[in-house]
Amino acid sequence: MTDINNFEEYQICEADIDKIIAYLKTVDPKNATPENAIAFLEHYAKRFHEMGHVLPDEQLKDLYSKFKNNKLDD
Q: Per the confidence metrics, is the pTM higher than 0.85?
């Protein structure tokens, strides 16, 4: 289990920007720019941070359970 005291804030990196640009090229080529990729990443980082403050514990638990069941090996 992850120790909450060792939490590191998400930092946008070149690899993430490149991934979003590649995705944008497939869904919205006209807007596939580094600036838009960064804006996209910043927007969703902020949204997930906000969700942690406003969602009740049960909803966060449900979101994590769905993630864990689909993405993590136990």
A: no
